[in-house]
Amino acid sequence: MAAQHRGLTVWFTGLSASGKTTLCNAVYQRLAARGCKLEPLDGDTARKHLGKSLGFSREDRGENIRRIGFVAGLLTRNGVITLAAISPCRTVRREVRASIGDYMEEYVNAPLDVCEARGPKGLCRKARAGQLPGFTGIGDPYEPPLRPEVECRTDRGSLEESVGKVLAAVGRALSG
Amino acid sequence: MAAQHRGLTVWFTGLSASGKTTLCNAVYQRLAARGCKLEPLDGDTARKHLGKSLGFSREDRGENIRRIGFVAGLLTRNGVITLAAISPCRTVRREVRASIGDYMEEYVNAPLDVCEARGPKGLCRKARAGQLPGFTGIGDPYEPPLRPEVECRTDRGSLEESVGKVLAAVGRALSG
Asked: What are residue A26's phi and psi, to 5 degrees?
């Protein structure tokens, strides 16, 4: 896997505080060090540039993710490895996978209680108290992937192990 | 200018029926024949994938174009020549130019009466009758670029001349 490579969307999904962003950032650094052409897309960037008017209802979050999927598809077909760390909803992920083709899913898996203990800014506590009605995993269901290309149990293994798994899968996808 | 090239956004602007899409498509074909990495972005695609809820008010059209600009920027920085045929509004074009950097503007210029005579589907007639209040150039002002990289008078020259001008400018931008 060198500077010349095909495009690929690497989609990290998991509960809030499961470690998606940490893993995504670590994978980004490693691929960048190899000279890969990379573009990270996150929910906040998408909201800022593609969906200022979108709220946090299930429908609006779905639409935000569809837009990220559209952009990821354009980048992927132009040879960019696009990293996205988002998406609670299986149906929308399935749509994105189908529309992109060169797509793989990394299930960043940690039990809800572990995520709650880690959770930044007391978000889970607020969600439990009903203050964040659409919070994924508490007020709103998280739908884990059924057949992810990679599963990382971030409560058991080290970050380095997870990174290794993802990089191996990316390497296979790009050479396949 | 070969298959390996830098990214660039080539932004065609002009009145409705000035010949933007025809010129953009012709430039696309010529660049594709040289093996360039290309991505065309048009207003309808953007609306479909990035802004279903946007209407046709000045503000909403501006937002649609900003989104196209954001995506064009991502593609451009990843080495793609992005062709966009849109945008009546100078302020938004200025924003897009500033945010992308590798950007050039093609002013597709034909007088309003020529565009009206050409106009597809009787759109200009409808606009004159007040049936399309935001129609660019009639109900809504068209703001021609002040310093376009290329200007093509499509009522005077042939399509092939216009294509030649654009290709020469693209070649200069990519080698510069």
From this structure: -65, -40
